[in-house]
């Protein structure tokens, strides 16, 4: 099935203007495929067909043209070949004028088809039996399309039984018919029937069922237009190699139901760290702080205080908070727990009431990580509606739009410059092509010939008697003879001497004209070289500008990423798993369809294996792979950087516990992993 499909696709590249003439030669031919292909290939090697676009020569120039009509040679004239009515094309491919040209004035740039393509086209368009001398029959639909006769000529009418054989094979008949050609030219059909045994009917029935299944499968494969829904993609033999998808790692410190809120809160705090006056922190440190219950984690204290301060920048929330609260409405880092309880009571959320007593008693650290994340998630929602965050969002949007406008403007300017450079290059190519064509196809007009002793100069300035056509007998410094053999000034010169002088004068005039043409050609060549040098300089300058342009575009991309206000997923796979990438963490997180399960890829090898496991015949995985292609370098660098940092950290921790001597261990303890200092907080 795959071979047939590929053969059918290959035949589609056969030139459409040659299909009708080729099929006309194939119809009712009695030779084998190899000989038939050779004959057709030779026949159309130097012949043109209607609708073919070629190059025509007129005088000393070449122009593109299209064959409008084929004029066969005249039977009464010898050595008369095909002539063609051509339409000369302008720059818009429209016919500007028509003329009749001989074959030697038309040039085909390359052969319209190869021998292999021709044979494939014949096999797909016509059928014949394997017997020697069997007729070729073009398919009926192609005969109707290209007006090909289905009636055989008189000398082949006796082979009509072979046509019945073709129809029997097309209908799946079980009878086989062979054509035997006699030496005297007569022929007869000899039909051979299979001798049925006990299993013949069963075998025929099984064969028919298999053929129907194959046809149904082929039609199904041809009718599918990829990409389709990923769950409908079925593996086939012509699929590209797909690697096994790696299993995401599950090495989270917290339970699986905490990961979604964990990533959301951490991404918001790191994205708006300067607006919140909160120093950025890693995701691992955030996890450790949430599960830590032996003391108060500085990271959580600073995070809660920063989100509380941002939420109270909203005028409406601040006024209500001041009215409900008897003491000062200003929050402090030292009273952040009471401030947190007050704002939770202000909004009256039921699920937080069970946490308030524990927080007021100073045991915030005893809350479960899920409860801490639930409170932080609500604080993020309030901070997102605050004035300070909204102002930052508006500022980022304006700056991002300005950068995008500048990027678009530079792209338009560079495209205009590229168009001008392409136009200059096209003009140089046209000029070069015209000069080359002039040298290949020189002007065939009659050149001046040097007169010999028997025939004095034949020139447009000399009449039939060998006399000058002007009145004074002098043309271009040449003296001409009068009828009595004397010059026009009356001095008599012997006829032989006059001829020699005139011959020398004409030769000198030809040399002068040849020298003028040579100088003119040298001038054109110098101008062409100058234009090429100028184009080369412009090309080099444009290449430098393009290099600077791409650097500026990359800088614009980085600036736009810095002002990104929303993190979008990379896409989904065939099972609707969603993939996230955070530049600050350097891992690819995998979210299940119901958001209940999470995993991650943390190495370059896992990224390569995951990339190779995507099937682009599916809609979702094709879009996912496109996003990975777009950000592959950035993701790969982040994964490698993360792996390097983990290795260095592991080596540093091992050095802390190294034995200083054989009798004493080191008393140095590893640094506090929960130590966190907020350098952005206003004191």
Would you mind describing this structure in some detail?
By secondary structure, the chain is of the alpha+beta class. It has 19 helices and 15 strands. The strands form five sheets. A five-stranded antiparallel beta sheet has the order 4-3-2-1-5. Strands 12-13-14-15 form a four-stranded antiparallel beta sheet. Helix 1 crosses helix 4 and helix 11 runs parallel beside helix 15 (369-384). The longest helix is centred in the last third of the chain and has 68 residues, at 495-562. The chain starts with a helix and ends in a 27-residue tail after the last helix. The model is unreliable at 170-199, 443-485 and 659-671 (pLDDT under 50).
State the main characteristics:
683 residues, alpha+beta, five-stranded antiparallel β-sheet, four-stranded antiparallel β-sheet, 19 helices, 15 strands
- Count up the helices: 19
Task: Tell me, briefly, the overall form.
Answer: elongated
Which structural class fits the helix and strand makeup? Answer: alpha+beta
Low-confidence stretches: 170-199, 443-485, 659-671
Amino-to-carboxy terminus distance: 76 Å
Mean pLDDT: 77
Rg (C-alpha, Å): 45 Å
* Helix content percent band: 40-55%
| Spatial order of strands in the largest sheet | 4-3-2-1-5
Strand content: 5-15%
Largest sheet, in brief, is: 5 strands, antiparallel
Q: Count every beta strand, where a strand is a DSSP E run of 2 or more residues.
A: 15
């Amino acid at each position: 099935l795959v071979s047939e499909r590929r053969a059918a696709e290959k035949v589609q590249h056969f030139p459409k203007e040659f299909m009708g003439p080729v099929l006309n030669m194939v119809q009712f031919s009695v030779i084998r495929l190899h000989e038939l292909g050779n004959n057709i290939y030779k026949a159309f090697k130097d012949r043109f067909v209607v609708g073919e676009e070629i190059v025509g020569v007129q005088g000393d120039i070449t122009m593109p043209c299209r064959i409008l009509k084929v004029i066969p040679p005249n039977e009464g004239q010898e050595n008369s070949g095909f002539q063609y009515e051509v339409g000369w094309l302008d720059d818009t491919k429209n016919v500007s004028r028509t003329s009749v040209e001989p074959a030697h004035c038309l040039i085909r740039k390359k052969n319209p088809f190869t021998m292999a393509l021709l044979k494939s086209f014949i096999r797909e368009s016509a059928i014949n039996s394997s017997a020697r001398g069997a007729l070729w029959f073009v398919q009926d639909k192609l005969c109707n399309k290209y007006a090909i006769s289905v009636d055989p000529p008189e000398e082949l009418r006796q082979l009509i039984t072979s046509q019945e054989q073709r129809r029997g094979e097309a209908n799946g008949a079980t009878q086989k018919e062979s054509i035997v050609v006699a030496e005297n030219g007569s022929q007869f059909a000899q039909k051979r029937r299979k001798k049925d045994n006990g299993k013949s009917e069963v075998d025929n029935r099984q064969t028919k069922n298999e053929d129907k299944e194959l046809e149904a499968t082929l039609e199904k494969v041809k009718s599918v237009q990829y990409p389709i829904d990923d769950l409908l993609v079925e593996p086939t033999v012509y699929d590209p190699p797909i690697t096994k998808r790696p299993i995401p790692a599950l090495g989270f410190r917290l339970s699986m139901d905490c990961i979604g809120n964990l990533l959301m809160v951490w991404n918001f705090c790191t994205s708006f760290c300067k607006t919140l006056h909160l120093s950025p922190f890693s995701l691992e440190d955030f996890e450790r702080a949430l599960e830590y219950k032996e003391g108060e984690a500085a990271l959580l204290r600073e995070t809660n205080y920063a989100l509380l301060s941002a939420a109270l920048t909203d005028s409406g929330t601040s006024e209500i908070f001041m009215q409900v609260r008897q003491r000062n409405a200003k929050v402090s880092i030292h009273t952040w727990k009471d401030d947190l309880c007050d704002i939770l009571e202000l909004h009256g959320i039921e699920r937080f009431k069970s946490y308030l007593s524990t927080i007021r008693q100073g045991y915030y650290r005893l809350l479960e990580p899920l409860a801490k994340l639930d409170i932080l998630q609500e604080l993020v929602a309030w901070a997102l509606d605050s004035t300070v965050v909204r102002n930052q969002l508006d500022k980022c949007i304006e700056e991002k739009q300005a950068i995008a406008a500048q990027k678009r403007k530079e792209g338009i300017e560079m495209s205009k410059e590229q168009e001008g450079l392409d136009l200059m290059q096209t003009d140089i190519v046209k000029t070069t092509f015209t000069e080359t064509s002039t040298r290949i196809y020189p002007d065939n007009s009659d050149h001046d010939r040097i007169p010999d002793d028997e025939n004095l100069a034949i020139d447009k300035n000399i009449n039939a008697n060998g006399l000058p056509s002007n009145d004074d007998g002098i043309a271009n410094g040449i003296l001409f003879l009068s009828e009595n053999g004397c010059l026009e000034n009356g001095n008599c010169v012997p006829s032989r001497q006059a001829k020699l002088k005139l011959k020398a004068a004409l030769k000198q005039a030809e040399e002068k004209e040849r020298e003028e043409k040579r100088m003119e050609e040298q001038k054109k060549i110098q101008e062409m070289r100058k234009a090429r040098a100028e184009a080369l300089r412009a090309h080099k300058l444009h290449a430098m500008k393009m290099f600077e342009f791409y650097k500026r575009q990359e800088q614009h991309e980085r600036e736009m990423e810095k002002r990104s206000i929303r993190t979008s997923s990379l896409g989904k796979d065939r099972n609707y798993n969603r993939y996230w990438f955070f530049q600050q963490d350097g891992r690819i997180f995998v979210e299940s369809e119901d958001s209940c399960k999470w995993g991650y890829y943390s190495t370059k090898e896992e990224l390569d294996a995951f990339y190779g496991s995507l099937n682009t015949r599916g809609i979702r995985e094709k879009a996912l792979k496109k996003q990975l292609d777009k950000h592959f370098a950035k993701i790969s660098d982040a994964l490698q950087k993360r792996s390097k940092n983990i290795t260095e950290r592991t080596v540093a921790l091992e050095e802390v516990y190294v034995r200083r001597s054989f009798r004493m261990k080191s008393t140095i303890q590893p640094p506090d992993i929960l130590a966190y200092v907020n350098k952005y907080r206003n004191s």
